[in-house]
Every structure is written in C-alpha cells, then in structure tokens.
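Protein modeling request. Please complete all fields; requests missing the sequence field cannot be processed.
Requester role: graduate student
Desired output: 3D structure, token encoding
Chains: 1
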Amino acid sequence: MRYTPQKKILIVDDDLLSIATMAQTLLRNGYQVTHATDEDLAFNATKKDKPDLIICNYESKKLDVRQFLKAIQNVRPSQGIPLLLITESGESVSEEHGILDPKQHLSRPFTREQLTIAVQENLKRLPLKKR
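Delivered output (131 residues):
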C-alpha cells in the first residue's frame, strides 16, 4: 500500500470564526490546516509551509488581500499552488489576479459540502509531482 501524505491547506482570513468553521470541516476530511490572519503571516506561511491549496477571504476588511495576492504571484506559479477565493454572495472576482476559473472561488454563504467539493476540485489542479 502506497503512503499518501495529507494535503496542506492554508486559510487566509481575518475572521477567526470563519477560520475555525472551515478548519473543522477540512480537518474532518483529513487535511492538514494552517491559517494566517494578515498578509505578512500569509506570505511567510506560503513560502515556509508550501501548502497544496490556499483558501483566501477575498473581501476581508482587515486583511489587504490584493497585497497578499500580488506578493505571492512570484511564489505561487513556481510552486503551482491553487488558490480558492471566498467571496461574498454575488460578488465577482477581479480578473487582475488571473482568477477566471469558477472553481477558484466560492460565494458565501456556503455549506460544508460545498467547501469540501471546492477544495477537492482545486486540489485536482495540482501538478502531478505534488499529488
């Protein structure tokens, strides 16, 4: 039997309740979960931990998401890390960050099942070496 390591997911959000809710769902599904509440912590966690997926609250009020996304543009392509953006209901995601694929965002409110499916879909986008 071949060992498959747990996929690592980084949650970037300034809302601790949202982080806890998403983390609980992800942990129950067998993922390793870390989180960051500001753009500097998120950037450092991306470089250090090399997550398999980043989930980011796009409409965060206290977190400069655009600064974080700009900062990881040089890191993300070389690591091939998929990005799942959480948006408010009805909000569109800016094309300036190359976020065009509907699998790359999830609108609030969402269920635990919708989060699980979105994570699974995004993890399918991992390069073959990281799977």
